[in-house]
Amino acid sequence: MNKSELDEIANFLKGVSFFSGVNRVSLLELCKNIKTKFFEKNERIINKGDIGDAMYVILNGKVNVHDKQHSYSTFSTADCFGEYALIDDEPRSASVTAMEDTSVLIIESKYFVELVSTDMGFTKGILSVLIKRHRELDVIQERLAASKQEIESGSAKMSGLINGAMDAIIMFDEKFQIILTNPSANKLLENDDVLQRKVLFFFDDASANLIESLVKSGLDDNTKMFNNYLPEIVKVIGSNETETLNEGTISRYGNDRETFYTLILRNIEERLIAQEKINQLTTHTKYLEEEIEQLTNNHGILAEDISMFNVLKLIEQVANTDATVLINGETGTGKELVARAIHTASNRAKKPLVRINCGAIPANLIESELFGHEKGAFTGATVARKGRFLMADKGTIFLDEIGELPLDLQPKLLRVIQEGEFDPLGSSSTVKVDVRIIAATHRDLLKFSKEGKFREDLFYRLNVFPINVPALKDRGNDVCLIAESMVKSFSEKLNKRVTALTKEHKKLFLEYEWPGNVRELQNLVERALIVSKNGEIDWADIIPSTDKEDLPQSQEKSNRVLTAEELVQMERENILKALRQTNWKISGDKGAAALLKLRPTTLTSKIKALGIVRPI
């Protein structure tokens, strides 16, 4: 080598970790006897078993250190291999093959030893590197010791976990011999000495065949591990012949030499008993619910009058559709109850029913309430807020008093109905929703629309399926049914016992017009229970007198011509009065037919035609 080549090799060796502590003068002396050799890809550099006489430094390229097909490691540029040959002449312990075209520096042991004996600087440099490596080995040793402690600690924790598990854990080998169990498994198997016994002996035939088939099917799988739920409940038979039903998992792990299986079982006897009890109770409850539904079928709405039966029929017809419903009726007639009945009977029943009273929210806030707003959309909007429509997504929204909705907001509602989308206040993003709309009003919206107080196109969009809830005064004996129910409810709530309604009391309820409808009736009954004494209520004093009506109103009522439908309704109510007075006896001197001066067969036909049914 010329001087420039020596300098280049010396500079290269300075970057090799093995020679990093050697000074440049010593490295130049070493380079005088270094050889360079080139190996093609897949060419063998060292053969296992060859007597070592030199070490190698990779100038460029990549090599594989291996024993036949097993690879130990790979080395590349500036890595060394074969260093042990510098101090002994033992056979090589592995082969080295070029993985790509590779050039190496060959440092023969005789020149290395000679330089060590004559050049103190070279010796010190090599020793410094070896000492550094020794110290690194000490650190590695300490880490190994710490790792050993961690492994022992982990093993103790794992043992505690296995032994403390409530589930039975059984490990067995490929021959189905048990090699480990935890206390829960010993309890399940009713045996503390099960090691080396066949695990299949502790199962009935069907369960043993299942576990055996899972193990054998797993052997065909090339993967070393699998984890499966047991597809069926297995029966364990303990040493004392106790049989238990269990669910569980089976898993496999291992290596090329041996394979093990872990069976985790959980006793489900108590759960099955509890589940059976639940199923029985559920079946019984379902039966009772069906019985109640057959008896009432009214969604909680007390009704005996034909007008409310018609409302119930409309609820059933529209409930399972997504049609928009407009409920019309006087204030206090129970429009919200009808809305809830529609939602409960619909396929959206498990989703929310969101209610908003359009007349109870200030005009400047209702848009935010309905559609939500972004942070900073208006003064006081310190955080973003969801609107009622977004809260009702996939469910139903009930817009009570829709006639009070401000005109400037009605186009936005129309867009939701038509397109199913809206823009929250202060947002440029469009929100899509799937909402069923039910609206209610005591206003004449058609008249409102003609007067310009309500958008006509919105009215027709809302009025897809109108339901008219009759006033309480038009529901005949329903007022007495509802009153009796309310009396019972408030007496329980206030812990007061009161006497039942008499015929005279019911007459007072039937004669009053109830301008506040059911809400007025509720308030009146609650007040009556509060002021009651010794279980007695003076209903004549509680219910406003009909005598207080002025004469012009009475004259107007007497001069009004009744419709055919009203005449039928009057006949129905008259027959009902007769049936109640005669305790539903039809024939005989004291029967309803005699009281009405009708033939019993004629009365029977009328009862059937008018749909009159004796209450249960």
UniProtKB/TrEMBL annotation:
Gene3D superfamilies named among the record's database cross-references: 1.10.8.60, Homeodomain-like (1.10.10.60), Jelly Rolls (2.60.120.10), P-loop containing nucleotide triphosphate hydrolases (3.40.50.300), PAS domain (3.30.450.20)
GO biological-process terms attached to the record: regulation of DNA-templated transcription
Name listed for the protein in its UniProt record: Uncharacterized protein
PANTHER family assigned to the protein according to its UniProt record, in alphabetical order: C4-DICARBOXYLATE TRANSPORT TRANSCRIPTIONAL REGULATORY PROTEIN DCTD, TRANSCRIPTIONAL REGULATORY PROTEIN
GO terms, molecular function: ATP binding; DNA binding
Stored Pfam families: AAA_lid_14, cNMP_binding, Sigma54_activat
Domain Sigma-54 factor interaction: 301-530
InterPro entries (alphabetical): AAA+_ATPase, AAA_lid_NorR, cNMP-bd_CS, cNMP-bd_dom, cNMP-bd_dom_sf, P-loop_NTPase, PAS-like_dom_sf, RmlC-like_jellyroll
Domain of life: Bacteria
Keyword list, A-Z: ATP-binding, DNA-binding, Nucleotide-binding, Transcription, Transcription regulation
Coiled coil location: none
Sequence ranges assigned to domain Cyclic nucleotide-binding in this UniProt record: 18-133
Species assigned in the record: Flagellimonas aquimarina
SMART domains in the cross-refs: AAA, cNMP
